[in-house]
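Structure ticket #2291
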Amino acid sequence: MHNRRAVVVGAGVAGLASAIVLSKLGWRVALLERRERLRGDNLGMLLWVSGVRALRALGIDATLDAGGTPVNRFELRAEERVEGSFTSAVLGADDGTPSVMVHHAVLYETLVSHLGRDVEVYPATQVSRIDLVDLAAGDATRRWDADLVIAADGIDSPTREVVAKGAPTVDAGVVAFRATIPAHRAPERDSDAVEMYGPDRRRFGYGDLGQAGACWWATVPGGMRPESPQIQHELINRWFADWPSPVGKYIAATRPSELTQQAVRFVWPMPSSLHYSDGNHGVVLMGDAAHGVAPILAQGGSLALEDAVTLGWALRRSPESIPDALHAYERARLARIRRVARLSRRAHVIASGGPGVTRGLLRAVPDTWLSNRATSLSDWQPPRLSSAHADSGRRG
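Resolution: structure written out below.
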């Protein structure tokens, strides 16, 4: 185990968490990142209970180490009317584990700080090929040999087509604008998190980041806007001018330079397999490269952390056989990934129903159904080794 080499392609949440896990297991890790610097985004993100549990399994406390703010209530509103809500009893867990809102950049820095000494980071490295014969990953000038390649290179991962054909990226036909407002400019928050549904497939949500301020997100139909940030800010003002408070306060408190936009896309259908193996080597898909679910339920970060923790469990379970470990990882992940993907896609279809349709569906769906669906998203627990596998892992 201590001489094993891994190449992690992509230094997002999934890649960093995977590198942490492998380093803890004694692997030598090359972390290849196309950006010139490792840094997070100035955005807010929701970690469901499952993601908080996964962080804890990595030795990271979501509230203490990553500055997360527990979410006690998440409301769904059709304009001013509350159509449904998830309380702390649903968003949290019986063991006291909460769901939390975190600042992406703070979480990212926390993950980077937990990288082990056996992790070598190679920024500005655009991986252009993966050699499946003599397993390696590389760019135009260099290759890194490996026993295991982890493809954590995002929703447009070229490796996904190598591992499992027929899992394309789908354009949802909407664009998401997002911003984080520092605490001294943030409006007073009347709830931990809210998402509002309006006409023409428009949505607006906001959440509390505690000392980091507040975040908001807005979804509108169409493609990426080519205008300057100033014009984009004016457009958002126009699109949401007649929406109830505090929507206008969040937009007004945002500077144009703080806006980001991203086309909403997801992977559908899900890959039929998450790994490839040959001999005692293998390639495995992680994070958005593996599943890239529709982002409406904010499951991407939590699923990525779950992936990394589950891979660590599988490698401890079968320390001498990478193929056996990857088979165990896939068996443990596929059913959950497919369930979350179906729920996310269904929620996206409902939210895209057009004027009146979304509002009518929200009013027709009982709160108990919403609560059960939310609970099913949070019911993941880190897998544990049996005593026999634990003894085998220690011998390995």
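Closing remark: The longest helix spans residues 322-351.
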